[in-house]
Amino acid sequence: MKAHGLNPRIRKSPFFEATIASGATEFHPYNGMWMPVGYDTPVNEYWNTIERAGLWDVAVQRVIEISGSDALAFMELMTPRNVSKVAVGQCRYIFLCNQDGGLLNDPVMLRMAEDRFWICCADADIYMWAKGVAVYAGMDVQIETPHVYPMQIQGPASPKIVSALFGDDVLDLRYYRWMWVEMDGRKFALSRTGFSSEVGFELFLLGDEGGAAIWNHILDVGAPFGLTPGSPNRIRRIEGGVLDYGSDMTTAENPFEVGLGARVDFDKGDFIGREALLRISQAPLAKTMCGVFVDGPALQKNNEHRWPVLAGDDIVGAMTSAVHSPRLDRNIGFALMQSSHANGDVPLTVETAEGIRNLAFTSMPFIDPDKSIPRQALR
Questions:
Q1: Which of 38, 66, 321, 333 shows the greatest Cβ crowding within 10 Å of its Cβ?
Q2: Could you read off the pLDDT of 242-259 as tens digits, one per residue?
Q3: Whole-model pTM?
Q4: Where are the domains of the chain?
Q5: What is the C-alpha separation between 73 and 92, in angstroms, rounded?
């Protein structure tokens, strides 16, 4: 791939040139930046993620900083989750809704200081949304997009790699916590978060200089532990029951429909979408997200759009994500179903890119339902 052939309107991460040198062959635009999405085959990258470790350039997770004396009140306004007890040094998975209760994004939030938060956003312009909310909120708050660029080290070897880089104190870092670390006199934020459902870390580069050298140094240090470059792995994501904003949930869905309803806190005070979500919570759900098995041989093609789920000739849902799991040796995925057809009482089929297949419901996550792998103590 020739770097000079890319559209200049889409930005390059500080690690971009290094990812090409490391073998990246495919990029997707995401949050206005090129995201490397392929080095090896997805199956090979999957095995490396669950057996060793992968280094991912995820600088496309646009970091938005919310600061000021009213930063906490503004965060409470922005999300249905209660974030008032999130301490400095903690992280939290949150979601943002519009005035109708539709999902806008599901970032990970880091509390950087009493009056400062970072949110790491999926592919949607939450910066402009937050700026617009701030105009009318009447609060002392500033909304910025600082030069902060995350990468992830994900997989069972990640603790050894990160401790080799920053010292053994990082092994005391608990799940969904962050800390400051240094490497060659340069400061980074390091968090126990990630998109793999494996034990892993995110490393936040402050500033846009020296990304290639940092990337290459991490690969060199990680090489004895099996670290190789990779990209967020679709197979492991789906096995772990991790929903992808834009694929599995959009503004057309609300938190209750995709299994996030228990995290909506109506007792915390006002937030955007509160009245709509209260009405939704008091009525039967129109749609329900379900884990499903799809029969037949291993699916070779991803669903580039939502596949129709049928009861006879009637469309009663849509499969939002589908993949073949090598460990389970089954086709698995998520189906957003009409709630009246989410009980398995009626035989269902799905129109895949490889023909009609039978579909059956199951629980999710498909592997490690208690999230014991990423939560594990590191020493």
A1: 333
A2: 999 999 999 999 999 999
A3: 0.95
A4: 1-283, 287-362
A5: 16
